[in-house]
Amino acid sequence: MREMKDSGIEWIGEIPADWKVSKVKYFTKCLDGKRKPIDASSRKSGIYPYWGAGSIVDYIDEYLFDEEVILLGEDGAPFFDYTRPVSFLVNEKVWVNNHIHVLKPDSKNVDSAFLVYWLNNVDYKTYINGSILCKLTQSNMNNIAVAIPSLAEQQKISTYLDTKCTKIDSIIEKQKKVIEKLKEYKLSVITEAVTKGLNPDVKMKDSRHEFIGMIPEHWKVCRLRNIGTPQNGLSKGGDFFGHGYPFVSYGDIYRNFTLPEKVNGLVETSEEERRQYSVKTGDIFFTRTSETIEEVGFSCVCEKTIENATFAGFVIRVRPFTHDLQTSFAKYYFRSNHHRYYLVKEMNLVTRASLGQNLLKSMPVLIPPKSEQHQIANYLDKKCSAIDKSIEQKQAIIEKLKEYKKSLIYEVVTGKRGV
Predict the structure, then answer these.
(1) 267: β partners
(2) Cα(158)–Cα(156) distance, rounded to whole angstroms?
């Protein structure tokens, strides 16, 4: 069994006796990224990757580095926790922005791939300056502790981890693809049920909307303005949030078909604001604006009033003034493919994707008889529950694989597990 010693650093623990503990600054050179060239700010036609915030965000016609470098995130904007910077090994011509640390390793003393595995394993709580915008300063980065074996052993470790992690990542990607297929299947099941009904032998008629197609002959078609009134949400300064009364956020709408009975958000509001922006049983909410069109127009219904709650300014509430559309049916109807197709096709795209009240009010709505709405909702509850269970099982597998990968890297790069 290999002889071990205390590294002297709590999060590292023991390391092999022949390893030494050093710091990043002793075997790397820190280079500086720069802001994107002004004349390339609106172009995406260049040939060189432009890195920012841990990913490629653009392609431009200039480059800063044409050598192997390690990119390490400098800052981020977490809500409750510190940011864990992610490091990448890049060996092509790239432009790197000023929010990324660029490290040039000394190839005589450190293996670049080994260092990347180490940097992605660091406990950054002791290195990041906590604030509204958490930041890994250059000084703190240079002082990150690294347990260093011989160069030959570093290379052996990185080769071993490359092989192991590639296999793990491959399994994770396969599980993710299965999840995407299940989500697509769920959406197709919902769309089929809310536009065609459950009786395959029912007589059909033309809906007079190309994106909907044929619908059951006895169903009605109206516009959303005929069944509900839209209302944009509450907008207030940051000082009002984090305390006060329940607040339904953009994320609450985007992530859920049905609002949770208890939301995490809080906002200080007046009695008049709580009346005007209330959240009551039967309300239908839509995400109103975002950076991308993919996140706009998602719906969520309220099945139980949230007392004293208000909702976000980036959200539209539609409050029904008729009983034609049952909440249990609306929960699925407004999440269907044809609904999304209509909104995306007509949406306003300027600097942000934006869903206006007039567009929402003009959206066609299919109205089956109430008894049939209940049947469809019950069918979809059971069907979607089964699909969601399968998705949860696949997601659990992914989380276990991620934990195993994280544990494997930690044990190997600290010498607790031999290769």
Answers:
(1) 241
(2) 6
DSSP 8-state secondary structure symbol assigned to residue 42:
T
Residue 276, pLDDT above cutoff 70 = yes
Separation CA 301–CA 327 (nearest Å)? 7
List C-alpha distances in Å: 349 to 292, 315, 340. 9, 17, 15
**Whose structure tokens read 């009975």?**
261
Give the residue from 109, 94, 98 showing the smallest Cα distance to 25: 109
Residue pLDDT, tens place only, 345-362: 776 544 456 678 888 899
The torsion angle over the Cα atoms of residues 325, 329, 331 and 336, rounded to 10 degrees, is -100
Instruction: Report how far residue 296's alpha carbon sits from residue 352's, in angstroms, rounded to the nearest whole number.
Output: 10
Distances in Å between the alpha carbon of 58 and those of 34, 37, 104, 147, 294? Answer: 14, 12, 23, 35, 19
Q: How far apart are CA 285 and CA 373, in angstroms?
A: 19
Which residue is associated with the tokens 């800063």?
A: 64
The predicted model scores a pTM of 0.81
User: Helices in 206-270 by DSSP H: which ranges?
Assistant: 250-255
What's the pLDDT score for residue 76? 54
d(CA 315, CA 304): 18
Task: Please give the structure tokens belonging to residue 47.
Answer: 């040939």
